[in-house]
Amino acid sequence: MNDRDIVGGLAVLVISVVGLVASMRVPSETTTQFGGGFYPGFLSVCLGVCGLIILVEGVLKREKVPVPKFEWGKVLPVLGSLVLYCLLFPILDFRIVTAIFLAICMFAFGVRRPLQLMAVAIGGSLVVFYVFTLGFNVVLN
Amino acid sequence: MVNVLTGLGAVVTPSALLWNLIGVVIGIVFGALPGLTATQAVAIFTPLTFVMPFTISMSFLLGIYCGGYYGGAITAILLRTPGAPGNAATCMDGYPMAQKGQAGKALAIAVMASWLGGELSALALMVGAPALSLIALRFGPPEYFAIGLLGLVCVAGISEGNILKGVAGGLAGMLLATIGMDPISGRPRFTLGIQGLMAGVALIPALVGLFAITEVLAKAEQMELGKKDQLITEYDIALPTKREWWESRWTLLKGTIIGVIVGVLPGTGPTIASWMSYQEAKRSSKHPELFGTGITEGVMATEVANNAVTGGALIPLLTLGVPGDSVTAVLLGSLMIQGLTPGPLLIRNNPALVSQLFWILIIANAFMLAIGLGAARAFPQILRIPMRILLPIICVLCIVGSYAVNNSLFDVWMVVLIGFVGFVASKFGFQVAPIVLGFILGPIIEPNFRRALITSGGSPLVFVTRPFSLGILILAGLLLAFILYRQRSGGVAGEAVKEPDMA
Amino acid sequence: MREQRRCGGGRPSVRWSRWIAAFLEMALVAGIAGCGGAGSKQVKYPVRAVTLVVPYAPGGSSDLSARPVADAMKEILGQPMVVVNKPGGGGSVGAAEVAAGKNDGYTLLNASIGPITIVPYTTQVSYNYESFEPIAQLTDIPLALAVSKNSKFQTLKDFVEYAKANPGAIKYGHPGAGNIQHITMERFCQSVGIKVTQVPYEGANPAVAALLGGHVDATVTGTQEITGQYKSGEIRVLGVTSASRVDMLPDVPTFKEQGYDLVAGVWYGVLAPKGTPKEIVDKLADAFKKACQDSKVLEAWKKLYLTPAYLGPEEFAQRIKKDAATNQKVVESIGLSKK
User: Fold this and answer.
1) Chain B residues within an 8 Å CB radius of A89
2) Helical (H) or strand (E) element with C268
3) In the prediction, which pLDDT does C21 show?
4) Which residue from B minimizes the CA distance to A128?
């Protein structure tokens, strides 16, 4: 597990196995020659072959590429604020959710000046809301 | 000839010109915003045209069409977030150009190439409509399957560094596209009982997630919290020289032809055209290794092709009553609202129609060029906004844009989920572009493969006994051989150049 | 991490506001119902914008047929009617959402025959036709069986006899498996005892293109999809499924005229979630009836080749019930029913 491609190849293999198992469970058709599971199953097998080769090449090659490191401390706050945005989207007024999201997300990115946070959050959400609803006829709750 | 000029008289009225200009502006804005597309814009504004006379309504809607197919290039170049699927390929060289301080130049090239492709395709509509419409008729299920395979070969061609990872990404994209309704039996598959997945993973959320959210997360990771951003304050707005255009003349011509033909074929659109054109430009180039590093030819190839789709896609709509892409599918309804029934009779009963649409397209593309050149000066200013403020705003636009397509909250969740997966995959050296291309090609390949076998009574010979199908399959085979050969012979050097910036 | 915790603390208050809102809404509804019971027939509806969910993408016939109606309804009801597109799953995504929505008359579905009377039998969805309160049928479009101009079939009889002699030899295209076009054709084949091969396409346009290109022998679509090609002589229409001839195809005989007992059509109509108060249903039905006579609406429908066919709540309910029963039987017999 000391190479990026060993991990990557393994991941591809796992996806292909999941895909293949799911494809085999698609009920076969009598009306058409190939049922709905044939093509995704075929893709899964091809994907598995790719994954296997990537894995083997990763094992065999001499110059290892290290497994990438994730800086979760920076990624998770952004991801978390996106998830929160999705959660609140159907519950609160669009303008409020968007302002909250913008503020949190900018904070996560390291914006600390309160005035800037508030101005961009409130201004941004209002501009987006009115442009989309009035200009583009999009219905935002 | 007289016919051509009478058309001009009808569309050069102040109100028609004004609505044309408004359409182009709306199109560019919809094109540029991630999630919103030209299709969406034409659909949203079609009800407005209930009360408009024919020339005004068409000036307006075709203006949206032309502007919309170019607009996505702006965000693709500046932010690596294609505003519409057809501009995804423009990220490949447009974004590196902007990073090198050539944002203005890249934007200028994009709009000039778009203009060229749009005008030439309008010409193709004017002179070649009846002949080209025959191509659309000759294409049955085996031919579409073959075109899909040709597109898949392009996936291998555009895979940076590691072809195998590109192919794996393409396959994963195709697999992702199988979720939802089985297109032949009409049964749901892989939906895990989730109502939202019944409709499958929609294209726009997948695209926005894979490009925009992936990029936002990658940028977030690179961000140094305490420090100020490294802003790109330089943006060369020098227009490309005559020599650069002349050197790319074959790329531009081939891109136009690819765009027009892909446009003529129902069920395919600008996304496939631009990737094919990009791959062809790279294949025939003397310096294929420079593609992806920010060269003008890469931007020209994609943008000339996606706007060349416009004229092409109108051809089957006007001659057969069958739309060539998703925008013309909506335009079919817009024509009916005008009391015109798209079909073989349309042109016969309205001989002036084609020349009017021709001039509308010519004018719309000219407006697009003027606005786009202005935008090439103005829009790079976006890069002056610090990333920590720009990225959250991009997120909001992505979420709202993806929501607006289907008014679906489920789609919004998909954006975030797919974006995260794309981010992790790209860290492991799997590029997002092949995944997107596979996602688009899958729904062409599978149903047409199965349909071809249904119509042939189960005989696989149908793929090689029809001349068009056989021809395209041979072409795909040759292209694949070429790509593999070059990978083998020049692969070592290529790998060495590519690997460091991917790690 | 800090900001996440802060939001976690914020959520309960969100829930509270939702509860309060829901409570107020309930009080309001109760108040309205109370008014109705108090003798004054006047129902205070609508007091705000009504949402009309179109379960298909903007720009399609479901969408374009609904928008002029919504405009006309604004003038009749005195409140705006907002069209919201919720496409996906052959119309089932939007239908499921309305079925699960509030039955206060403020969320309506611009339904059509497929998602209401077929999809619940072919697919696991959270609703069936009984989850709705029918309000009004608006339009009814017959189906057409079309062949190429070079086809050897001149009449429906030719088609049926050839199919009898050569089971499975005729290939017909339709706009998608489990669509009304597919189900109706299968129903026809069963009734006359023939076997043909079905080729599903992704919508009506590709199916018509396949017919023009000669990739299939016949195509079944709504009449509005082939009128242009018919008028130019590129295709021949063997029959339409309406009870009497269609205005836009006056030379085309119906199935019935040719001795085949098949009457079917694609209807578009408006449904509300189950349990919507009767007064509101009646008020809406009246309003839609007026909208169906509005000259702008009629003109728009004419251009889109949609046939106006207003039905009130009771008749519409009967039709839905009948269609659902018919289609369910066909779905089961061709092995398309959900497992």
Assistant:
1) 399, 403, 409, 412
2) strand C265-273
3) 53
4) B397
Q: How many CB atoms lie within 10 A of CB B44?
A: 21
Residue C83, SS3?
A: strand
- When CB atoms are compared, the residue of A50, A53, A71 closest to B221 is A71
d(CA C64, CA C169): 38
Are B164 and A50 a contacting pair, CB within 8 Å?
yes
Secondary structure element (H or E) that encloses residue C33, with its range: helix C2-37
Is the CB of residue C18 less than 8 Å away from at least one CB of chain A?
yes
Q: Contact A107/C3, CB-based, under 8 Å?
A: yes
Cα separation, C43 vs C24, in Å, equals: 18
Whole-complex ipTM: 0.94
Convert the pLDDT of each residue in C175-231 to its tens digit.
999 999 999 999 999 999 999 999 999 889 899 999 999 999 999 999 998 998 998
All structural domains of chain C? 42-141+266-333 (3.40.190.150), 142-240 (3.40.190.10)
Closest CA–CA distance from residue A60 to any residue of chain B (Å): 16
HEC per residue, B364-429: HHHHHHHHHHHHHHHHHHHHHCCHHHHHHHHHHHHHHHHHHHHCCHHHHHHHHHHHHHHHHHHHCC
**Full residue range of the structural domain in which residue B471 is found:** 2-502
Q: Distance of alpha carbon C45 from its chain centroid, rounded?
A: 26
Cα B465 to Cα B459: distance, rounded to the nearest angstrom? 11
pTM: 0.88
Q: Report, as ranges of residue numbers, the positions in chain B whose pLDDT lies below 70.
A: 1-3, 160-161, 225-236, 490-503
Quickly tell me which residue has 């997360």 as its tokens. B217
Interval C94-145: pLDDT, tens: 999 999 999 999 999 999 999 999 999 988 888 999 999 999 999 999 999 9
Residue of B nearest to C331 (CA): B186
Tell me if chain B has a CB within 8 Å of the CB of C305. yes
| Cross-chain Cβ contact C3/A104 below 8 Å | yes
Where b means 16+ CB within 10 Å and e means fewer, B411-424 reads: bbbbbbbbbbbbbb
* Cα pseudo-dihedral B224, B226, B232, B233, rounded to 10: -170
Tally of domains in chain B: 1
Buried residues in B468-478 as b, exposed as e (16+ CB within 10 A): ebeebbeebee
Stretches in chain A below the pLDDT threshold 50: none
B409 contacts in chain A (CB < 8 Å): 86, 89-90
Q: For residue A60, what are its two tokens? A: 């065999």
pLDDT tens track for C11-46: 334 444 555 555 555 444 444 444 444 344 456 899
